[in-house]
Specification:
285 residues; alpha+beta; 4-stranded antiparallel sheet; elongated; binds zinc ion
């Protein structure tokens, strides 16, 4: 799954290459890619045609392009394997090309949604008064959002009967933190993933949020280096970040802090990677 930094790289690419352009034609090449647009592919294409794309926006892992003329938004779901590509109009079609958007200008490029597994897709949604697509109105702000409320997050952590990694992945509390970045931030914070949050102190929450932000910002800096080309891409991998990982994927390798072999444990159909020495499990209650 793409995480926030990957989605932000795509957002920046869209802002640079398609914002302000007017849609000329829309080809829906696979109905599954627009299944979240409940009125269907022909309606999707007809409504989008002729509209000017606004500046791409993101909240957590959700990405959308405002369509100010109709107070709606084009929402992109990247799913497991979705890619939004800006390609020269004469480039050969990708094997898994699902939607093509051509523009009414002579810049010579088009927007393509490519998705091998077709878990992702595109859809149009009315905006809330705040300008969010209505279907994501319940998604919390992400920690890189200047309006993220640290004090409210701390209060919510204390009130919920939950554990710290569950809380980090709860999109109604904090959005955009996925499995990889949660493990990295917990390692930096020396917190075991099953640590209950009810007893968190203000400094502990502040330290955790600081590490979450650092991990994401560093990934963003590295991901941002490769997008100067005309290729807006997310492929669900965090490959560019692999060299910097301290926890995720490092089972049996020495902890970068204390040298103890790292462990992997099954966790909610995924894995959690941690150092058994730096990140002590909570005592059973
Ligand atoms: Zn360690």
């Amino acid at each position: 799954m793409p995480e926030l930094p990957e989605v932000e790289v795509v957002r920046r690419g869209l802002e640079r290459w398609v914002s302000g352009r007017t849609v000329d034609t829309v080809d829906v090449l696979h109905p599954r890619a627009v299944r979240r647009h409940l009125a269907g592919g022909p309606d999707f294409a007809a409504r989008l045609t002729g509209l000017r794309l606004g500046t791409a926006m993101r909240r957590g892992k959700y990405l959308w392009i405002p369509l100010d003329e109709i107070s709606a938004s084009l929402l992109g779901h990247l799913g497991m394997s979705g890619q939004l590509l800006v390609q020269p109009s004469d480039a050969p079609d990708e094997k898994h090309l699902r939607v093509r958007v051509r523009f009414a200008d002579d810049l010579g490029t088009e927007l393509r949604f490519v998705d091998q597994r077709t878990f992702g897709g595109l859809s149009l949604h009315d905006n809330t008064p705040e300008g969010l697509p209505d279907v994501i109105a319940h998604i919390a702000r992400d920690p890189l959002d200047p309006a993220f409320d640290d004090a409210a997050f701390h209060t919510a952590l204390r009130l919920r009967r939950t554990t710290v990694k569950r809380a980090l992945l709860d999109q109604s509390l904090i959005s955009g933190v996925g499995n990889i970045y949660a493990d990295e931030a917990l390692w930096r914070s020396r917190l075991h993933y099953e640590r209950p949050t009810a007893a968190f102190t203000r400094p502990r929450t502040a330290e955790l949020l600081g590490h979450v932000r650092d991990v994401m910002s560093e990934a963003l800096d590295q991901g941002g280096t490769s997008f100067d080309s005309l290729y807006v891409n997310v492929n669900g991998e965090s490959g560019y970040f692999d060299r910097s990982l301290d926890a995720y994927g490092r089972e049996d390798q020495p902890c970068h802090r204390c040298g103890t072999p790292m462990r992997r444990r099954p966790w909610m159909n995924r894995s959690s990677y941690y150092c058994p020495r730096c990140q002590r499990p909570p005592r059973p209650a």
